[in-house]
């Protein structure tokens, strides 16, 4: 099996790190819940415009920074606080010991994403790391997944044996579908409200990987033409 895994809010808690950092900044500025809510809304769980977020931070927190400096400032705050999700490294090790190949496939800047990987000790637990800034293409474009498969030596792999696992429906699930892979959505307690439910939906990454592995094993064991479920 081939596993392509998103980084932010899939392997590491980027949203949690940003919220903790933002909460501290709001407290230091003697501001209140409305200011924190506005900052979190502008962040959009890490998927919003970094420039727009920087402008909200400057306005709400009274920073003297220009937009590029504000972006560097909040990225440093995220990097300081980011942590790998509990049990994820164990799950990755189990996959690799079973002979599966694993890649991180992430949107973002090279410095920031590799910084998260280094801080969380992920590199020793995966076979490849693919970052959108380095490749000039970002999810939901399926080409980023094609790059990852090439790095894993699996460009010609049966896409039914490839899983794209991530928390962002518009990026991770959409990219997986476009590339013809199976998809696992890490819901973090949310409900799937779009068309075409992913192959697997689970609240945590560990559960998503376990369910996807079980599904693949069942499909492999079933006779041709069998209907499962």
Structure description:
- With 229 residues, this protein is of the alpha/beta class.
- It folds into two domains: 2-12 and 84-220, Rossmann fold; 14-81, no CATH class.
- Helices cover 50% and strands 12% of the residues.
- The chain has ten helices and six strands, in the order βαααααβαβααβαββα.
- It has helices spanning 14-28, 33-43, 50-61, 67-81, 88-97, 110-120, 132-135, 143-151, 169-179, 205-221, and strands at residues 2-5, 101-106, 128-131, 162-166, 182-186, 200-202.
- Strands 3-2-1-4-5-6 form a six-stranded parallel beta sheet, sandwiched between helices.
- α6 links the parallel β2 and β3 (128-131).
- α2 packs antiparallel against α3 and α3 (50-61) crosses α4.
- The chain is elongated.
Short description:
With 229 residues, the chain is of the alpha/beta class. 50% of the residues lie in helices and 12% in strands. It has a six-stranded parallel beta sheet with strand order 3-2-1-4-5-6, sandwiched between helices.
């Amino acid at each position: 099996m081939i596993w392509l895994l998103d980084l932010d809010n899939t392997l590491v808690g980027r949203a949690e790190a940003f919220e903790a950092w933002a909460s501290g900044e709001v407290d230091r500025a003697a501001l209140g819940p409305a200011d924190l809510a506005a900052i979190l809304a502008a962040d959009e769980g890490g998927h919003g415009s970094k420039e727009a977020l920087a402008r909200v931070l400057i306005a709400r927190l009274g920073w003297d920074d220009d937009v590029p400096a504000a972006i560097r400032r909040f990225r440093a705050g995220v990097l300081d606080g980011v942590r790998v999700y509990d049990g994820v490294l164990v799950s990755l090790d189990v996959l690799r010991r079973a002979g599966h190949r694993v890649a991180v496939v992430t949107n973002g800047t090279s410095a920031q994403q590799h910084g998260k990987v280094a801080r969380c000790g992920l590199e020793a637990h995966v076979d490849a790391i693919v970052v959108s800034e380095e490749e000039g293409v970002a999810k939901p474009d399926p080409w980023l997944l094609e790059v990852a498969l090439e790095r894993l030596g699996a460009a010609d792999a049966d896409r039914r044996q490839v899983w794209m696992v991530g928390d962002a429906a518009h990026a991770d699930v959409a990219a997986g579908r476009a590339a013809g892979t199976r998809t696992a959505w890490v819901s973090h307690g949310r409900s799937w409200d779009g068309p075409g439910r992913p192959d697997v939906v689970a609240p945590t990454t560990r559960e998503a990987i376990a369910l996807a592995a079980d599904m693949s094993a069942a499909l492999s064991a079933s006779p041709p033409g069998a209907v499962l479920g």
